[in-house]
Amino acid sequence: MNIDQLFRNVYNNKFLNRNIQYFIKLNRVTRKYDDLCGVNFMIQNKYWCLLKDKLKRKEYLAITPHQKNIIFSIPDFDLFLMVFNRFKHYYPVAYPPLLQEATKKDNLEILVYLHKLGYKGTMNVCLDDAIRNKNSAMVRYLLEKFDYCLVAENKFFGMILNFATEINDLEMVKYMLKNKQQHMTFDKLEVALQVACANGSLEIFQLLYSTRGNMTPFLYWFTTTICHFEMFMYLLHTFKSSIKQEWYIEIAKTCKYKSHEIVLYLLQHELIDQDTWNTVKTTIALDAFKNNDMQVYQQFKDSDSRLKTLYLSSVKGATDSLERVKELLSMGLMVDIYSVSMASKNPNSPEILEYLWRQEFCSTFSLNLFVSKIGGVVKCNQYLLLQFLIKNQYDLSKEQWWWCDMAKVDRNLPFIQLFLSKYPPDDQMRVAHLSNGLSEAATFNSINTFKYLYDLLLLESDQSPQLYSEAYKKAVANSNIDIIEHFIQKNTPHDNCVLGYSRSVEIAELLIKSQTHTINEQTIPTIVGDSNDLHVLKYLMELFPKSNQDLVWSINLAIRRSVSAGKFEHFKYLLAHSNNIHDQSILKTIGTFGNLQMLDYYVQYRNSKEPKPSIDFYPCFCQTIQVGHLELMKYIIDKQGIEMVVNDNLIYKIALTGHSYLIEYLKEPLSKCNINFLYSLKLSKTMYVSGGQEEYNHYLQVVSDDIISKCLSNASSGNKKGFFSFFGK
């Protein structure tokens, strides 16, 4: 087969053609493998294979400090271990307590692992999480391992007992009664028995009841267990001598159609009178009819089943078909506003809505009320419903806000055309609505809808760039070539900031050759933030006039955006073309976003360009400790020495951030400092970590004592006091 034949075979295959086009476009809009280094991003988007691959290859990865606990949401325990061990220094054992992160994510395996490593947790919080997640194995583990540190255990006894009863965990109930019996009170037992009745947990009920002996039954035991026939019969036979006659009547009145067997039993054994039976059977018949259980309905109905008291909206599936609607109405059921609303939500059967609207009842309420009930149903592209509303003279002119969303797909065009022809936007909001709709159509390549809205905008007297610029950018950003060409052919006005949204060189070339777009100071920074294709950046950089005074500013802004976007290849390319690499804002941005790979490259690049570069790391370091990037802090200290922290009195600032893992790293180098320096710190006693962080203040005191202790081991004298003693006083 020659290449031409192969091309025709592939191109004419709709499936292959569509997929090839899709992946070509995807390659231009998705982030590149080398740029993906954020652990948080990969976890949030569930890129498990990518994350595992990068870990195995020992490639550069970074974690976002303020979201570092996201790793506990990794479902695969082996993958969690790989990530945890890679970033273990971010999770010191000493502080903060960490076990509740495992219980919050309902992961017993991680909880057990962390506990074995010596991590602590706030046990009351952990137990609350385990109970909320209905994880009995986790509850059991917490009770067995941390019984000694549970606060208000008396309170938790009732919660755990009810929880175990609710999920029918007999073994957990046995465990609680065996090991925590001292916390049992009559009130707790009463509640637990009620839970057992409501859940039909017969064995648990028997076990709980046996702990107190001859306990007098309560009426609610019977009324809450009516949906569990076996349980009810047990209670009835066990406590028959204690049941009052009026209880049988109350029990019967509580029964619904699902518990009809109980009513029949009470009737057969003459435990309820005829009047009670007549009342109850009608209720059960109506309940069964509403739930389409015709077998129970036929069993309990009588000549006066009161179907005429029911509305269509109360019957399950009443508006599923026109035949069903007619059948129910012939039985005497009534139409209410909710019935019409139900019918309006079925876009496939507009005849049901028409039929109901012709009923006499509908003349008693306004269409205004009807539309307020159906809410956004019209928005679901129900063209026939819109026609119905127009025919009945309802004014939808105030409902303009939602039609713009419908411009995403061309199949909604008939609806939009009818809607705007009948309810044109008022002068005040007309331009805004049309412009928003145009942007939606341009984003999702709804070419027919786009052209229709574009023609409407052309009728506006004020043809300002603001009308079209956003839609233009959306079309370019999504490489929607048909819409882009339409803009070009019409010589559409714009704000000349469109070029930077190009996702491919082809799109950029098309815009430039049209002579309607030029490169300006915003183009390069925009392309770095919006496009992942390095070729586009290179193409536009070659065209940027070198004499332009804004070139230096534009490139340095683009460098900072490449840092914030984590685009390493863009960063290297831009750095090589910058005439102002000494700009402190570059280092400060790196410190904010914590990309060690970029910082190391920046330092190496400076070293290659200057004999003895004097790099001021201070602004970068301040941002680094504020955000909590441990790798960057270690890197800068390795370059500058611990004296950087000591001489600038940054220790207090580090402590104030609350990043305990930074302090844990500094323990060793600080313990080797001059003891005289440690005692010379004179900070205000009011400068402490506020906000009720007593545990953190205590942690700081312990750490400072440890540092001083190590220093004193090398000193013959000195007044021992806490290094961070200004905290928590």
Automatic annotation (TrEMBL):
Q: What InterPro entries does the record point to?
A: Ankyrin_rpt-contain_sf (IPR036770), SecEffector_AnkRepeat (IPR052050)
Output the SUPFAM superfamilies linked to this UniProt entry. Answer: Ankyrin repeat
Q: What is this protein called?
A: Ankyrin repeat-containing protein
Specify the domain of life of the species encoding this protein: Eukaryota
Cited PANTHER family: ANKYRIN REPEAT-CONTAINING PROTEIN
What is the protein's species of origin? Polysphondylium violaceum
